[in-house]
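In this notation, each integer encodes one residue's backbone shape. One such record reads:

___
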Amino acid sequence: MEAALGLMRRIHPKQTETALSALLSLLPHHSSDLLSQVDQPLQVLTDVDCGKNFILCEYNRDADSYRSPWSNKYYPPLEDALYPSFELRKLENEANEVFAVYRDQYYEGGISSVYMWEHDDNEGFVACFLIKKDGSEAGHGRRGFLQEGAWDSIHVIEVGPEEEGISHYCLTSTIMLSLTTKNDYSGTFNLSGSIRRQMNMDLVVADGHLCNMGRMIEEMESKLRNSLDQVYFGKTKEMVCTLRPPAEVVLKLPTS
């Protein structure tokens, strides 16, 4: 099991679904663990009642149907489906509106969805914040000229019960990045990978759970973006420039 999870963390995001299907056939008795611990590239479906897109994941899935955060309906329709309580649904609606603004300011577009549900022990709740951004030319990316480009953010927050005005928050965040460039100058270049981090905080609930969760996500995303910039882009640039120095550097090298 540990070897399987280690393999999934190092595989290309595009191959995750195929690899996960193969692992499920090899380890059927670990299916629940694999599905809960392995993050897959996010998929999108349209809510025909609202005309809005929403993101599919394990957190809004019941059987083979997925719940829309906009209309609170399952697609395809499902009888005896699970729904959040009235109070939690109210908070979920507010979170989707606020997170859509956050997504547009930080990502200049894309799709976001927020889902919430009661914790198994009926104490506290869990929230999942999702962002999917297609940065390719086909996806109308506002910057760059990527042949393919995808950014998937998954933030799962466990919120503990309130005690003396304070709640415990446990945030687990995963970023999956995949991009491909292809032009006459640089040729074809592919870069992909994922990164996961966790953060625990005890915060005062006076400003509301949504404010606390929002601050944690904003701080975590900033850290993850810096890590990606330093690890993926920084190290890749260092290696490429070492193996294939830019033309202007080669011209300055002394000749024997």
Summary: The mean pLDDT is 83. The CA atoms of residues 11 and 77 lie 34 Å apart. Strands lie at 43-47, 52-56, 61-62, 65-67, 74-75, 111-118, 125-134, 148-159, 166-183, 187-204. The two ends are 56 Å apart (CA to CA).
